[in-house]
Amino acid sequence: MIELKVNGNIYGGWKSASIPFGIEQISNSFEISVTDRWAGQDNPYPISIGSACQVLLDGETVITGYVDDNTPEFDANSHAISIVGRDKTGDLVDCSAIHKTGQWVNATLDKIVRDICAPFGIKVIINAPLGDRFTTFSIQEGETAHECIDRACRMRAVMPTSDGKGNLVITRAQSGAPVAELAQGENILYGRGNLSMRERFSHYYIKGQDRGSDDDIDSPESHTQVSATATDSFVKRYRPLIVLAEDKGAHSTFKQRAEWERNVRRGRSARATVRINGWRNVNGELWRANTLVHVVSEYLGADANLLIVGGTYILDETQGMITELSLVGREAFDLVVGVKTTKLKSAINGKNGAGRSVEKGTRKANADSWSNFQ
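RESULT FIELD:
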C-alpha cells in the first residue's frame, strides 16, 4: 500500500511508516522501514541518500522530494532499513535565501516567492489573493529561503505550504462543507484534547499612531495617538495584553486588529487529535490538510466543524493503516494583512512581534465556537 519510487524503481513491502502532513510546515516528510531486504533485491541497501524520490499511498503521490537519511541496522538474527525524506520544499527550510541584490522594488508577492524558489527548481502555485505590491522588500542577512518567504506571506495574509508534488502553494485556510463526520463511539478510534488558557487574555489593547494632517500642528498628540480594545468574555480574571502596531492606522483598523488577536488566540487555545481507520475519508479521498470535518465528541466537548491543520498517515504491524488528524477551529487561521509574528505564533515559530492592518471581512468571535470549551 506504500511505495517509494527512486530512480525509476519502485520499492514496496514496507512494514511500518509515518508520513506527517499539514499546513503549519512548508515541507512534509516521511519515514518508512522494512525488517528485511525486498524480494528479488540482491543489494539490501539500494536507496542512496540525496536521491530524488516519490512516496505513493495506494498509487497516489503524497511526497515528491529527496531521501535525507538511510539507516541500515542488523544483529545476529535480522537486519532492517529505515528511509527518511522530505518534500522538495525541505531545501527552502535548510538553505539560505539568495537572489541578485537581495531586494525587490514594487514587486508582487508571487514575483518575490518565485525568484527565491527558482534556483531550487520549485514551482509556485497561487491559490489565494495576494494583495498589493511591496514598495520594497529585502532578504534579511542570514535568513533561510523559508524564513524569507514566510515573512513576505504573513505580510499579505497567506500561508506557504507543500502540495506533495514538489510544488510550493500559497494559500489560506479553506472554508466550505465538511468532507466527513467524525463521531465518538463510531469512527473515532482515539481522541485527545488540548485546551489551554495560557495564550488567552481578558483585554487586548492595540496601540499605535495614525498619520497626521496639516491641521494637527497645534495638538499633535491628541490626533496621532490611536488605540483600540477587544475583550474575551470567557476569560473571567484580569489578564490584559498590549500589542504595539508596526504601522500607522485609523481607530477602525486597530479595532479590527484587536478583534483578530482575540479570535485567533481563542481558536488556537483548543486543539484536538483523533485517530481513525484507514487513510481515506468516506468519499474515497486521502485525508488532506486544510479541509473541514465535523466532529462530535461528548468527551472533548465538541460538536463543530473543525479544520484539519495536519495529520500523519501511519502503518504498523499492530494497528494496520490509520490516520491521526490534528484539528482546530477555523478561526485559528484567520489571517491579517501586515501582521508579522505575535506571541500567539509561538505555537508555530516561537517568535515575537506585532501587526499592522486587517482585511475587510475578518470574522467576529463565534460564541458557539469549540474554543469556548463549552
